[in-house]
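Good morning C.,

I know you're traveling, so I'll keep this short. The sequence:
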Amino acid sequence: MENQQQVAQAKAEILIEALPYIKKFKNRIMVIKLGGSAQEDPAVLKSIFTDCQLLLEVGIMPVVVYGGGRKISSAMQESGVTPRFVQGQRVTDAATMAIVARVLADDVGGDLLRLLRESGGEGFLLNGRDHAFLRAVRKTLPGGVDIGLVGEPVAIDSTPIHRAFTSSSQEGRRLPLVAPVACGCGRDSRTLYNVNGDTAAALVARDLHAEKLVFISDISGIYRDPAKPESILSHLDQEEVARLIREGVIAGGMIPKVEACLFALEGGVGKAHIVLGSLPHALLLEIFTSAGIGSEIVLERK
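The tokens, ready to paste straight into the viewer:
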């Protein structure tokens, strides 16, 4: 009996700790970028979608941006197209772009909608192919290297998201799922572009004036020493991030991720977070607890 009371009390304390954050973030948008192996594990995805459903129920407005690099490469190989990368960017000709759009907008998007329904929720898909939601200009690498139909995202059409979240019907509880497939701008509007998912998430967060941008990752955050889990840096500002990059602490694939965080912060997003996707309810633990469980990045300490 005593143990049951302790468990009940612990749950009550968790709710009490979460209450100020629920009040603070009500009617605010949070952009969540699915990444790493978390997007490949149905159980992890269902946990994340359950967290998103809770956010919707308490009046917070989550927007999910997803990728699918591994599935794109597999689909290319099945079609007899060899994936090529230059400076970490997928070289994207017309044939590759057709595969990218199909895999992200149709295959991965359809799978995510199915898993969301199995988790008790409903969602809707957004991309640059079907809705002109995400717009981009052609990207050229330093030195003028041409990598084909790879885009740099520049704008979104926020109308469908705001319309969904301001609806008084059940539609207001549907989760937007955004694929990083963009259309061109102006006269180039019929051209499709392959866009980096992290960069797309940062732009979406900026243009939606999001309160937070959360990257669901394969690691718990940024470490002073990757070999020592206890060395995780729970709170960093822009100056510290720049120093850690110079020191080589932040390196490799983490650099573009933190650069995406800084882009969003400079555009007005309140905070950016990197959390471990395989940790159950990592999203809620990071948002609704004072200590958090990942790395939080801000422009400057107050």
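Safe travels,
E.
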